[in-house]
Write a structure and sequence with these properties.
The complex is a heterodimer.
Chain A: E1 4-10, H1 16-22, H2 27-34, E2 35-39, E3 52-58, E4 61-63, H3 64-75, E5 77-83, H4 85-89, H5 101-111, E6 127-132, E7 142-144, H6 151-161
Parallel strand pairs in A: 1-2, 1-3, 3-5, 5-7
Antiparallel strand pairs in A: 4-6
Chain B: E1 3-8, E2 11-16, H1 21-27, E3 51-54, E4 61-62, E5 73-75, H2 79-95, H3 110-117, E6 134-135, E7 141-144, H4 153-162, E8 167-170, E9 177-180, H5 197-201, E10 207-209
Parallel strand pairs in B: 1-5
Antiparallel strand pairs in B: 1-2, 3-4, 3-5, 6-7, 7-10, 8-9
The chains are: A alpha/beta, B alpha+beta.
């Protein structure tokens, strides 16, 4: 059978969800029989391709760069999965939301700095005023909460989305935190 | 003692006069989700998670404070009730800053468990992200208003069991806050006996023992009060 096209994307998160994905261990080989990883921080492809069947999105939408990326990912993906608490709720990145981006940057890069004070503007993209869950920006089909989602849950969800008969459902149901 | 007979999800049941729908349901082994309710304390119907449908009444009724009546027809599970309860949980989450992954109660939180039980895996409502205080002035304990659901268990246990009435609620609606001694910092409270009962009954990580890190609030939280049972732990 032809393999499905799988992608993973890393926005404002710690990469812990990708680590949990790697915790599939030998099941990654099984997964590779059913899906080709066409874009991911784990493979060397620079541009998100068209015609992706399933994409796991880790991280919140926190910058103008994240915003552009997730819109382009959405346009080229059939099933978008909010992968982990940062994508689902904005989680730790949202800790700054009660403060707002400008006062936060002022405090971190100007007020509390002894030398070379100034908000960085080169290379790094501007922060959005609030860090947002992915589904606040683009439609999302599947939510996979957890910090990180356990490997068993990722395995079961991916097999289901790839149309493969899944094994035993994971013992722990999807949960925030 | 007079007895009322009525139906619970179509099954005929009997309850003593003065018993609530929740009490009879629990006796019958029918599980109704709760949050502000705790066996051993008075009931206030604050959280609305235990809402049930009662035939002939226009609105859903909180089971924890609605007394049983003769001939009542009560429905505890329906698609609409599931949706209402899920919405209540969602509103509790988005109203303050509940970030489970970095909470002292992660893995032992009744709000977190309710989200699992009711299938809440994301929030349609936008997070309000209010800027709230943490009062860590007490020697042993702290209160993080970011994680308070205003269940008032702390207020009730302090008043009804400890007899100190250190805690109360100030403000209205979205501005409501649990306060110690009319707004005195907890550490300066002249009435607090430092008994820790409020910490033990808190369903979330709002009240916690100092020195405990993420997910460490659980181990010794509730056995402190043996006569108060954990949410869903059994019948009365």
């Amino acid at each position: 059978m032809t393999r499905r096209r799988l992608a993973t994307v890393w926005l404002d998160g710690c990469s812990g969800c990708h680590m949990s994905f790697l915790d599939l261990d030998e099941r990654l080989l099984e997964l590779a029989e059913h899906a080709e990883l066409v874009y991911s921080p784990l493979v060397d492809v620079k541009e998100y391709p068209a015609g992706v069947d399933v994409c796991l999105v880790e991280g919140a939408v926190s910058t103008t760069d994240d915003l552009g990326r997730i819109r382009s990912v959405r346009a080229r993906t059939r099933t978008l999965v909010s992968f982990g608490d940062c994508a689902v709720t904005a989680n730790v990145p949202s800790l700054r939301n009660p403060v707002g981006a400008a006062p936060l940057l002022q405090r971190a890069y100007v007020d509390n700095v002894d030398r070379d004070a100034g908000v960085p503007v080169e290379v790094v993209p501007p922060l959005l005023d609030r860090s947002l869950p992915v589904h606040r920006v683009v439609p999302v089909e599947v939510f996979l909460p957890g910090c990180p989602p356990p490997a068993d849950l990722i395995h079961e969800t991916l097999l289901r989305l790839l149309g493969v008969e899944a094994g035993v459902p994971p013992e722990r149901p999807p949960r925030f935190g | 003692m007079s007895v009322h007979t009525f139906t619970l999800d179509g099954q005929p049941v009997a309850g003593a006069a003065g018993e609530t729908i929740l009490e009879v349901a629990t006796e019958q082994g029918v599980s109704i989700p709760t949050l502000c309710h705790l066996d051993g304390l008075s009931s206030v119907g604050a959280c609305r998670l235990c809402v049930v449908e009662v035939a002939g009444r226009p609105r859903p009724q909180p089971a924890c404070i609605t007394p049983v009546e003769e001939g009542m027809e009560v429905v505890t599970r329906s698609e609409e009730l599931d949706e209402w309860r899920a919405t209540v949980v969602e509103m509790l989450f988005v109203e303050r800053n509940h970030i489970c992954s970095i909470c002292v109660a992660n893995g032992d939180c009744e709000l977190q468990d309710l989200a699992v039980d009711l299938g809440v895996d994301h929030f349609e409502l936008p997070a309000m992200s209010p800027r709230l205080e943490i009062d860590s002035s007490h020697r042993l304990f702290a209160i993080d208003h970011n994680r308070c659901v205003l269940c008032t268990r702390c207020v009730r246990v302090c008043d009804e069991i400890e007899g100190a009435h250190t805690w109360d609620v100030m403000g209205r609606g979205i501005d409501a806050r649990v306060v110690s001694d009319l707004g005195t910092p907890w550490g300066a409270s002249p009435t607090c006996t430092s008994c820790g009962k409020c910490v033990q009954v808190c369903p979330t990580g709002a009240l916690f023992e100092k020195g405990r890190a993420v997910g460490e609030g659980a181990k010794e939280r509730r056995p402190f009060l043996p006569y108060l049972r954990r949410h869903g732990a059994g019948t009365r």
